[in-house]
Structures are given as C-alpha cells and as structure tokens.
Amino acid sequence: MFVAVQIPYVSPEIAKQFPIPANSFCIAPGLMSVQSRGYLRMKTAQHDGPLEIQPNFLAEQADVDALYAGVELGLELASQPAFSELIDRWIVPPQRLAKSESVAFIRQSCSAYFHPVGTCAMGIGPESVVDSQLRVHGIDGLRIADASIMPKITSAHTHATTVMIAEFASRLITQEKDMLTTAAEGI
C-alpha cells in the first residue's frame, strides 16, 4: 500500500543525510502482509518496569523483496509524465539505485507503519491475552478494545477494524449492563 503525502516523510536519520525541502512530496510503500515478527517484553516483573521492544524489521527475506518491489513501483510511478510538473528532482533516494544499494537503503530507512497490533492478542492459546468477549484472561471486569487484540495485522489500514472492535465492545458492555439490570430487577 502506498502513502502519498505532501510532507517530508522520512526518519530523522534519513533527514540528516538528505536536505529535504519543506514542500516535499512523498510516495512511500508500506507492507500490509508482513512476514517478520517482532516482540514486546517486560524486562522485570514490575508493572512499570522497562520494556524490551524488538520490531525485527525486515527479518524475513520476503519482506525485503516485497518492499524492494514497492520502492521500484513507487519510483516508476514518480517517473510518469503525470508527475513531471510536480517533481523537480528526486531527493530520497536522489537517483535510481542498483538493487543492492536499494536494499541497503530500504534497511536503513525502514520504520513502523504506526499501526502496531497483537500485543494483547485475542485467542485461547498460551500467548493470548483476551477471550472472544474481549475480557482479559484472569482479570474480572477488564476488557481490551483496541488494535492490540488483533492476533495479526490486517491487510489494510487498521482504523476500520479498530472501530469495529470498539463497536463490538460497546455492544458487549451494553448487553452485560442490560443483563445485570434485568437480574437486579428480578430480585
């Protein structure tokens, strides 16, 4: 999936290497079916203790290959006549790169798509945190209703799915409240 934005959309590390004009236009590829898996772990048993965050970006060759294809497609799109009046010059990368150079650039510039999921995955296995009713295993009265419950990332933007999870949670909570009210009235 491509994100096309009219801002200098790069990491701070890349911005240090390339002088990027404020009125930049960016066509950035993003992987929607990522094979690499990262993790988030607590380093201590303390609830407010430090975390170990390991994204494992591009750990799987399939992700490198897919992102390389995405960069090439983005550069091909930027080379089309329809963009000729919008683009004075390429900035990042400043020119077409050889495949090995492009892969090195991809590894250096890769970042999160800002849609993390799965840190509190729904399910019944040992790694799951919530059940099918969004209740946290082993803790009464606590539900989680955000993208963290998705066992894996969706193949598109996570916003719509997260809204659906929130709507589902509101229905569960309302139904539970109605059942408690009905039970209390019957006493």
Description:
The protein is elongated, with a radius of gyration of 22 Å. The mean pLDDT is 89. By secondary structure, the protein is α+β, with helices and mostly antiparallel strands. The protein contains 4 helices and 4 strands, in the order βαβββααα. 34% of the residues lie in helices and 9% in strands. The strands form 2 sheets. Strands 1-2 form a two-stranded antiparallel ribbon. It has 2 domains: 108 residues, no CATH class; 73 residues, no CATH class. α2 crosses α3.
Determine the structural class based on helices, strands and strand pairing. alpha+beta
Q: Give the CA-CA distance, first to last residue.
A: 56 Å
| Topology pattern, helix = H, strand = E | EHEEEHHH
Largest sheet: 2 strands, antiparallel
Question: How large is the share of residues in beta strands?
Answer: 5-15%
Keywords:
elongated; 4 helices; 2 domains; 187 residues
Summarize this, please?
This protein is an alpha+beta fold and 187 residues long. It has helices at residues 12-17, 61-78, 99-109, 159-186; strands spanning 2-5, 26-29, 39-42, 51-54.
